[in-house]
Specification:
alpha/beta, five-stranded mixed beta sheet, 10 helices, about 50% helix, elongated
Length: about 280
């Protein structure tokens, strides 16, 4: 009964992950290379068949998403910004997943993978020591997470606060300026659906000169942003010249600058056109 319950919990969690998380295939690949492959090499074909069938079952909820996608007028995964993938990328990715990758995507299930690997590969006399070391690692991991949460270090970027600040203080006639649509994705995620401010994506369009009294809200992302940086983003100077059109516009209109609000990884600035 215990094995049945654990198996059901495994399938349930994996099904949710496959349905909700775009990187969930990494979990399956990790299971395969860290757990299933050693069993294949040892000749445990029955275990491998069960592993394969369980992942087929867990992937069923994904069919709902695929079905909904095919019903749209325009079928798009929204990833047109990704550059072409060279021939070597799959091999580099495989190497990183197996030996070199310690980013945010492995943080939560890496201990479980280590547990499975150790218990499937170590001699029985070493399993007790391996279990003890894993428990110590998990305890220190939990303590680290709790401390970071208590110090509010878990919020790597402050998009909710930054977006809602603009929404609360936006006035009729105001405009929002961003470098490109990448900043609008989190902005729209954390604002009300009815809030649709006039927006300038300065990377693709040339804004008209500021006129007297005109208010423009500018959102500047941290230029040193790293998706795999696990901690709070460092401070940065939003007026630093980084060669973008947004940076140049801010430099030209520096005298119209009124105030700024700093959040982790993003800064909100307000510019108001001056009276001639």
């Amino acid at each position: 009964m215990t094995l049945v319950m654990l198996g059901g919990a495994f399938l349930g969690i994996l099904s949710i992950a496959v349905y909700l998380w775009h990187l969930s295939p990494a979990i399956i690949m990790t299971h395969y290379f860290a757990l299933t492959l050693p069993f294949i090499l040892r000749g445990h074909a029955d275990f491998c068949r069960k592993w394969f069938i369980s992942h087929l079952i867990a992937g069923e909820p994904l069919l709902i998403w695929i079905g909904a996608l095919t019903q749209q007028a325009v079928i798009s995964f929204g990833i047109a910004w990704i550059p072409p993938v060279p021939f070597t990328d799959p091999f580099v990715t495989l190497w990183n997943m197996l030996f070199n990758y310690m980013g945010r995507d492995f943080v939560f299930y890496l201990p479980a993978i280590l547990t499975l690997v150790l218990h499937s590969s170590q001699p029985s006399q070493l399993r007790q020591w391996a279990s003890f070391l894993l428990i110590v690692m998990l305890i220190f991991g939990v303590i680290t997470v709790v401390i970071r949460s208590a110090n509010h270090e878990e919020k790597r970027e402050g998009w909710p606060d930054a977006s809602q600040h603009i929404e609360r203080n936006f006035q009729p006639g105001d405009q929002l300026m961003v470098l490109n649509g990448a900043s609008l994705i989190p902005f729209r995620r954390y604002t009300d659906d009815s809030f649709d401010p006039p927006t300038i994506e300065i990377e693709f369009e040339e804004p008209a000169p500021l006129v007297s009294g005109q208010r423009i809200w500018v959102m500047v992302r941290n230029p040193y942003e790293s998706l795999h940086y696990p901690f709070r983003m460092p401070d940065f100077d939003p007026f630093a010249n980084d060669g973008t059109k947004l940076s140049e516009w801010m430099r030209v209109n520096r005298l119209a600058y009124v105030d700024q609000w700093e959040y982790p990884g993003v800064t909100v600035l307000l510019f108001v056109g001056m009276t001639p």
